[in-house]
Amino acid sequence: MPGSVVLLGGEPGIGKSTLLLQLAGALAARSGPVLYISGEESPGQVALRARRLGIDQPALYFLAEQDLHAVLGAVERLAPTALVVDSLQTMRARADGPDIGSVPQVRESAAILAHLAKGAGLVCLLVSHITKGGDFAGPKTVEHLVDAAIYLEGTRDGQLRILRSMKNRFGATDEVAVYQMGVQGLTEVANPSTLFLSSGTPGPGASIVPVLEGSRTLLVEIQALVTPASGYGPPQRRTAGLELNRVLVLLAVMEKHLGLTLGMQDCYLATAGGIEVREPAADLGACAALLSSVRARALPEGTVVFGEVGLSGDIRPVRRAPERLREVAKLGFDRAILPVQPLRGKLSLEVIQVKGIEEVAEQLGLS
Ligand code: TYD
Ligand code: MG
User: 46 C-alpha to center of ligand 2: Å?
Assistant: First the structure.
């Protein structure tokens, strides 16, 4: 959108520069001059990357610069349609100001660039690093100044990248795109539905959940391991890809309503492919995987489970169940266990609607 400011956040090394260089090349080919500013890489480094990515675009200009006023001068001379600033944390808005990368420098740089974008009808793409140490002014410090904030995330297995819109003045938030990082940079994964399933039939301790990511339904495998604790110290509770606090609540619900004793058991829970799942609909999938591990019996083949689990062991409705079921059926699953909620239209799979967690255990043959 002309005049818009888009923030791209992500951890160092995740692929922000790669993605923006690919985007800048494509934009330059389509809509005229694009200026790519780097405060952290030399022209040689960026040229090497561009060559590797097969970008050979005369309308793409590069400048290695940290002084924001020099950047503004270059923008004035070139009048590009888009400007990439890589990264905000390496821009110096004020020569006599505090350290580069500090909150005031980053905020002021973002504010000046936003003003420039609006005034000149220029698309401004700003990179911001997320660092664990917090010694840097991260993307949250400038999110209020931008029209859209988009984050590039990795997954544990290394090759996949998920691009997620967190704020978007011009369209939907919570949309995701999935990419693969390869020797030719990032390429889109056109059909990511089954990317987060492990290969083969899930064994004991695994469940499959249809998770909504924006307008997509992704099938995600949740894996659990419940195993006797060492007896020294408190039992382990670990998660990857799922929220630990949520899982602790689910464990308590299972103890209470399924009569399990987990106090002497270590419990580990992870999503396949390392995708972050933040949806309540995954509750039931986590419970099913845990229960399956406790009983050392696999879930019935071709079955998916989803639903929010309440504190009293009740299974609560989730949003857009029919969409999830359609995708599940399309991918060849033949049974779904889900909350009692209205489902319009005909579905080509067996639907089992459940009210409580005891019923789920029974339906899965794990009571
Ligand atoms: P980069 O875009 O530099 O990350 P960021 O700007 O977020 O810090 O990407 C860094 C990693 O990506 C680096 O480890 C090398 C890898 N990479 C590839 O695997 N293929 C490629 O074509 C490119 C350009 C980078
Ligand atoms: Mg970079």
Answer: 10
Given 190, 212, 247, the domain boundary residue is 190
Quick one: pLDDT at residue 156?
61
Q: Which residue segment(s) compose the domain that 301 sits in? A: 194-363
Strand-strand pairing, 82-86 and 34-38: parallel
CA-proximal residue: ligand 1, atom 12 (nearest): 15
Nearest CA to ligand 1 atom 10: 13
- Give the pTM: 0.81
Which residue minimizes the CA distance to atom 21 of ligand 1?
185
The pick from 18, 126, 129 for probing ligand 1's pocket by mutation, whose C-beta has the most ligand atoms within 8 angstroms, reads: 18
One domain for residues 183 and 200:
no
Q: Of 141, 149, 143, 145, which Cα lies nearest the Cα of 103?
A: 141
- Per residue in 225-248, pLDDT (tens digit) is 999 998 888 999 999 999 999 999
pLDDT for 195 equals 80
Does residue 72 sit in the same domain as residue 216? Answer: no
Render 139-156 in DSSP notation, one character per residue: GGGTGGGSSEEEEEEE-T
Joined tokens for residue 98: 């505090």
Last residue of a domain, one of 159, 190, 221: 190
Same structural domain, 158 and 278: no
Same domain (yes/no): 154, 253? no
**Ligand 1 pocket residues where CB is under 6 Å:** 10, 12-18, 49, 52-53, 181, 183-185
pLDDT of residue 273: 79
126 plus 86 within the same structural domain: yes
Question: Which pLDDT value is given to residue 160?
Answer: 87
What are residue 60's DSSP bridge partners?
34
**Of the bound ligands, which one is closest to the alpha carbon of residue 86?**
2
State whether 166 and 220 are in the same domain: no
Under-70 pLDDT residues of the chain: 133-136, 156-157
The pLDDT value given to residue 117: 96
Atom 22 of ligand 1: nearest residue by CA position: 185
- Look at residue 345 in the predicted model and tell me its pLDDT: 79
Record the tokens describing residue 196, joined without a space. Answer: 């987060």
Q: What's the CATH code of the domain at 104?
A: 3.40.50.300
Q: How many domains does the chain have?
A: 2
Distance CA 80, CA 224 (A): 52
Contact present, 197 and 211 (Cβ < 8 Å): no
